[in-house]
Write a structure and sequence with these properties.
Low-confidence stretches: none
Order of helices and strands: HEEHH
Structural class: mainly alpha
Strand order of the largest sheet: 1-2
Shape: flat
Number of domains: 2
Largest sheet: 2 strands, antiparallel
Distance between the termini: 67 Å
Oligomer: single chain
Number of helices: 3
Strand content: 5-15%
């Protein structure tokens, strides 16, 4: 008895319809517009890192997302 395998369509075949959509997409497939991210590296004391990590674990929050929220609150857009 032959095996049947279903193959999903290639998502790269769904091209964006306009140049702006293509530029704001990944490989021509329209995605939600994500803000441009930049890496921000700095040193903090180990005990502060532990407190942040523990608190985020208790809240079931991502550390990076929590720190982004704190920074956005402290440095609002003009």
């Amino acid at each position: 008895m032959p095996k049947e395998i279903s193959i999903a369509p290639n998502p790269r075949n769904r091209m964006a319809t306009t140049l702006d959509e293509f530029v704001n997409s990944e490989n021509g497939v329209q995605t939600a517009v994500k803000p441009r991210m930049k890496r921000f590296t700095f040193d903090i004391p180990a005990d502060l890192h532990k407190r942040i990590k523990r608190t985020c674990l208790e809240r079931e929050e991502d550390m990076a997302a929590e720190i982004r929220r704190i920074l956005a609150r402290e440095f609002p857009e003009d």
